[in-house]
């Protein structure tokens, strides 16, 4: 029971940090669905203001979701890394996301004192097909 309460408190803290330290996350209503042990799931609800002509969600919106998801995964391992900075991010767009709520599922593959590297798979909530895959590296502040 105590473990569940601590996990809830940690997830709530991560959500608060994401919304306070990533302005786009608040603006785009990105929500932390899950964040624990280096893995996170974040929701990007569909909003027509983030779409391009033809109804496709813009690339920068997908990038914001990926960046926030990896940041949340880092925080789930090292909550003191609020100052972690993105040093590299690469994203592959696999299919058009049209009028869909999206979820970014991230996982940290390696983390050290100074760096972290992870991957994000972006999918729709309606089906299991990949929309995009991103990888990113972060510089961590010295502890």
Record keyword descriptors for this entry.
single chain; 143 residues; alpha+beta; six-stranded antiparallel β-sheet; globular
What is the element layout, followed by pairings?
Blueprint: H1 2-21, H2 23-27, E1 31-36, E2 39-44, H3 59-77, E3 85-93, E4 102-111, E5 115-124, E6 130-139
Antiparallel strand pairs: 1-2, 2-4, 3-6, 4-5, 5-6
Helix pairs in contact: 1-3
Overall description:
The chain has 3 helices and 6 strands; from the N terminus they run H-H-E-E-H-E-E-E-E. With 143 residues, it is of the alpha+beta class. It has a 6-stranded antiparallel beta sheet. Helix 1 (2-21) crosses helix 3 (59-77). It is globular, with a radius of gyration of 15 Å.
Q: Could you state the order of secondary-structure elements as H and E?
A: HHEEHEEEE
What's the overall average pLDDT, rounded?
Answer: 91
Number of E-state strands: 6
Q: Ranges with pLDDT <50 over ≥5 residues?
A: none
Strand count, sense and barrel status of the largest sheet are: 6 strands, antiparallel
Distance between the termini: 30 Å
Give a summary of the structure in a few sentences:
The chain has helices spanning 2-21, 23-27, 59-77, and strands spanning 31-36, 39-44, 85-93, 102-111, 115-124, 130-139. The chain is α+β, with helices and mostly antiparallel strands. The chain has one domain (2-139): Hotdog Thioesterase (Thiol Ester Dehydrase, Chain A, Roll), CATH 3.10.129.
């Amino acid at each position: 029971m105590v473990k569940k309460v601590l996990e809830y408190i940690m997830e709530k803290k991560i959500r608060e940090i994401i919304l306070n330290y990533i302005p786009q996350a608040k603006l785009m209503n990105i929500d932390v669905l899950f964040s624990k042990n280096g893995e996170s799931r974040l929701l990007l609800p569909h909003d027509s203001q983030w779409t391009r002509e033809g109804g496709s969600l813009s690339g920068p919106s997908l990038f914001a979701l990926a960046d926030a998801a990896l940041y949340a995964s880092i925080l789930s391992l090292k909550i003191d890394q609020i100052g972690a900075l993105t040093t590299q991010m690469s994203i592959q767009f696999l299919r058009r996301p049209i009028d869909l709520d999206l979820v970014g599922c991230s996982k940290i593959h390696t983390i050290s004192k100074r760096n972290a590297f992870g991957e994000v798979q972006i999918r729709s909530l309606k089906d299991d097909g990949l929309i995009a895959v991103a990888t990113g590296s972060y510089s961590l502040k010295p502890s």
